[in-house]
Amino acid sequence: MKEYDIIGKPLPRVDGIEKVTGQAKFTVDMAMRGMLFGKFLRSPHPHAKLLSVNVEKAKKLPGVKAVITRDDVAGIRYAFVDTPRYPADETPLAVDKVRYIGDEVAAVAAIDPDTAEEAIRLIEVEYKPLTPVFDPEEAMETGAPDIHEPFELGSKTEWEDWGVRRDRRALDWRDAKNLSGRTSVVFGDVEKGFAQSDYVREDRFETKATAHCALEPHAALASFEPSGKLSMYLSSMGIFYKRFILAKALGLPISRVRILKTYVGGAFGGKIDLFPYEFCAAFLSRMTGKPVRFELEREEVFTSTRQRHPTIIHIKTGVKKDGTILAQKTKFIADNGAYRGSGAIVVYLGHAFSIPVYSVPNYHYEGYSVYTNNPIRGPQRAHGSPQIRFAVDSQIEMIAEELGLDPLEIMLKNARKKDDILPNGDVLKSCGLSKCLEKAAQTSGWKEWRGDRAKRTQERESTSRYKRGLGMSACSMFSGAPFYPFASSALVKLHDDGSVTLYIGATEMGQGSDTTMAQVAAQELGLQLEDIRVVSGDTELCPIDHGQFLSGGAFVTGNAVRLAAADAKSQLLKLAVEILGADEPDLGTKEKRFYVRGNSDKSVAYAELIQLSVQRNNGNPIIGKGSMKAVQEAEFYPSLAKAKGHFTDAYGFAVQVAEVEVDTQTGLVNILKTVTYHDCGYPLNLSIVEGQVHGNVSMGLGQALWEEILLEGGQIQNPTFLDYRAPLATETPKMISGMVETRDPGGPYGAKEVGEGSISGILAAVANAIYDAIGIRFTRLPITPEKVLEALTLPLSPKGKGKV
Amino acid sequence: MKHILKLHVNGEEFEVLAGTNKTLLEVLREDLGLTGTKRGCDLGTCGACTVLIDEKPHLSCLTLAAAVQGKKIMTIEGLAQEGELHSLQKAFVERGAIQCGFCTPGMILTAKAFLDEHSHPSEGEVKKAISGNLCRCTGYVKILEAIISVTKDS
Predict the structure, then answer these.
(1) Same-domain pairing of B91 and B39
(2) Domain limits for position B57
(3) Which of B47, B78, B109 is the last residue in one of the domains?
(4) Contact between A697 and B139 using a beta-carbon 8 Å cutoff
(5) pTM score > 0.95 for this model?
(6) Which of A121, A268, A303, A716 would disulfide-bridge A102, Cβ 3.0–4.6 Å?
């Protein structure tokens, strides 16, 4: 396959030096003269009526510049999803009720954080506690308390601006209490499929809420210019999406809101939603005429931003004796907490990340997102995929065990292939899934270890203290999706010296966007990485960008950059052809010059061509532009309810193996090694791609083994890094990450998704490896030492297999 | 109650008017504008605020500024000498040990203090040395590679 000079190389990041010298500015580092500090009063109740809020004393405290409550922000609503079916359900400050512990009740702006804090303590609130509900299945029962009033039909919603039609007016679609979203998908005849199956089994799986743990806390700094224009620094992962929703909530024209660049100290999905602190920073700034900054405390980040959806997943699968899947029926229940957040999306994605992996001819999926009085849940890395992959691939192993098959064989037999058409019409134009399975098996020594079933059973049942096991799982991820703003574009501006400034609206949040996009521009223009300067992350300077969610960065923005650079190059080339008197195909590029192949003395510098262009073409200094729609054939938003319409234009795939050692005396699971093979199409920067895989694997291991938001009556018990433990350096196993190149025809140089997919396979890989080691099936995450020990002491079933 | 604090930071003397309850982290970031030292948790649990005090790593969010007067404080801004990056800074850049970069300053300073005392550590020792510095982006793999590469080069 074709190799390139710049693309594919593990080049150092363009922001590396800024970051190692402490010069890189993050949102929390931004300060303005005379700025005020914002703080919230938050609800101590999980569910209560808000009777009165008295702020008189707080307002009188010296140094307090403004205190706002529901009275100040009456009528303002916004949400991550805002359609006629799912109208926005969030308000900047609580109105009639509080719905979780941490719900914002009032906000203060004061001259320093201590004064703001003191003012918060002076606010008097009267609550009337209401019955809370914390379990999603209980919340769906008839007698459960209503967390939200029935939604208002006919209210204006944001998504309508971009193609969500009102004609299919939302009737009350709810078939259970407290539902915030429903997805139903049927294809084939699932009952017939089960009837034709040799073996059918049904299992229930549970996953827990987990925290993103981005190291930079959520923060925003807002200031209004005298003209009435808002400038904001915020820690985000999609500045155009943020601007869209923020402008609407503030009642400002979109052009009067500018989001400026800062580096983002990690996001992992947790910074895409609009948050009350962002709205209130802007609102309080407008009110006081001064810049206002909010910086959430770490505990607030844990309690009052977003978490991964905990899920309950029932899966019934029917297979033939040889492991061919004939039918699958899934019920996916996601607890989205007090507000919808991305609930209606995660239940759609639970389906969308199920169907691209295995071919299932008869399928029935029912997704329910449910309101509870728990904290709010939102997107987190691979949004919905880790949960559904954990369930599906744990069950594949259980089926393999029953049928006496190697799970790898079942996975290979059912794996999707290139050119497969998914039920929604998406075509897998590239698919390295089978190759990933084969490579992962080979590298992990799968056949050697798992091949001898009798030996495995013997070892599993032996009395040795430490037992080893191997487990595998497969997963898939979008490469961008049709959500606002639906497209990316890029501008390439040439300078007199032949170097380039690249303008992209993407946000550099650690994933390496600035570097990778600079590489694409350099490759296309025949330049070196150092010839490209990137201006990104600013809604005023940069053209629109898809945003850093659902893994559209490389695929969508990368294509836009490639086209913009190609546009600039073709303008240069036209002049070069004329000056050198050669045909286009005979011209090569080197060191900012075009030369005639086979006659390198005959050449012309980019700088000369730019001068020439200015002289001849009415001052045209050569600016290239390019744009790319996220999903070519999609009419804006897909249907979340029926999962119809195109989801993405390219699917990334990954297969992951975990090798574990279980200490049967302590219950501790030690990860010895992980193997990941990722089909990301083509790695634009190998070092960055490997870094993404490592981060995914690490997060996945934490979530498989110990990460869990512990809740007691809606109160988070572990809102610190001490109690909620993200993996430490000492918990880093050997990680092997290999690439399977498929070069997607639609991707820039064949690139697809990379930043999210490879967290999803780790969960089932670990659970399956633990089963392989000790013969106990864990269907509830995380698999903590306590659970392992408890299971080891349970009486064994006659077949020696437990299920926990 | 505010006092004039005399602090020695990155080879320079500073006088800062600050309350006695101010942490070193607050003074560095808010009074001296040295925002390379990061506040990730303000509870001493993430390591992002690590600075060197008399060449030893300390969590500046748990250190009162008044208590470190007369000591030599080094922040990430003071590590490169005369425009030349420290070998760890170079290794982090070259080996892709950086993603979002928020943990990077604390991570590099912790590693520096460790390597100053252990010239040829094992991988396990390096892991232990940086286990108080959280990184959510990298899974630590390339960070470990970068730190170990410096010990091999020397």
Answers:
(1) no
(2) 2-78
(3) B78
(4) yes
(5) yes
(6) A303
